[in-house]
Amino acid sequence: MRWKGRRESSNVEDRRGRSSKGMVGGGIGTIIIILAIYFLGGDPTQLLNTSQLDNSGTTSSYEGTAEENELAHFVSVVLAETEDVWTELFREEGANYKYPKLVLYSGSVQSACGFSSAATGPFYCPGDYKLYIDLSFYDELQQKFKAPGDFAMAYVVAHEVGHHVQTLLGINEKVMSLRSRLSEKEFNKYLVRLELQADYLAGVWAHYADRTNLLEEGDLDEALNAASAVGDDRIQKSMQGYVVPESFTHGTSAQRKRWFYKGFKSGNLSEGDTFSAETL
């Protein structure tokens, strides 16, 4: 990717090196201090946000390796590129695109969706409009999933931004409203379609990113390889030696690869209705 020298997003929170115990739920002492500040007329969020980043994407208490810090700058550029594309696409539809925030963390993190560890992998929380990424996932993507390359990581970011787009469009809420009305097996089918649509939306972003001379030769293959690498069938096969299709929540390797590529080729939002598609 030709990413160096491009704009970095200001919508990044760097929580690397912070303990989740320092946030709400971090202990009775923290709660007492917060309540004391509140009743004295102060703003308790100042206590909670003392370690968050400034607009440069750094913190005063955490020093990452040169490689990790470069990766932090990289994902910030990718986020900025998604902001540009989705702002324009929403504008064409007569709507405003509300930027998500990207939270960088290490080890564990507290979001509006609950407590998560790095083992969860990158995720998007619709409750706070934020993407969460532990940058160590980049190494995991290369070593465990055999999906190297910077555009493989860009695909991961773009996929989570795809979930943000779904949230803004009301799609995520509609799907989640079905959880209490369906069996786990039936609800999983909707989750698969939701994830495949996020892959499609990531492909749509890549379609327009390619027009801005961001992509280099081989980048598309890196993204397609990454999409295939995180298919439910491939992950289950490697972890337990067999697959259970009824438990799939993200789609097979072939499906994820297909929908990302479809979005990349079309660049058209109207062709990404995975919920009406007869064949995934």
Can I get a quick summary?
This protein is of the alpha/beta class. It is 49% helix and 9% strand. The protein starts with 11 loop residues before the first strand and ends in a 14-residue tail after the last helix.
Characterization of this structure:
The structure is a single chain. This protein has two domains: 12-17 and 62-271; 18-52, no CATH class. The protein is built from ten helices and six strands. It has helices at 28-39, 45-48, 66-92, 137-143, 150-168, 171-176, 184-211, 219-229, 232-240, 253-266, and strands at residues 12-14, 101-105, 108-111, 114-117, 123-125, 130-134. The strands form two sheets. It has a four-stranded mixed β-sheet with strand order 1-2-6-5, covered by helices on one side. The chain has a two-stranded antiparallel ribbon with strand order 3-4. Strand 5 (123-125) and strand 6 form a beta hairpin.
Helices, strands, pairings?
Blueprint lengths: L11 E3 L13 H12 L5 H4 L17 H27 L8 E5 L2 E4 L2 E4 L5 E3 L4 E5 L2 H7 L6 H19 L2 H6 L7 H28 L7 H11 L2 H9 L12 H14 L14
Helix pairs in contact: 3-5, 5-7, 5-8, 7-10, 8-10
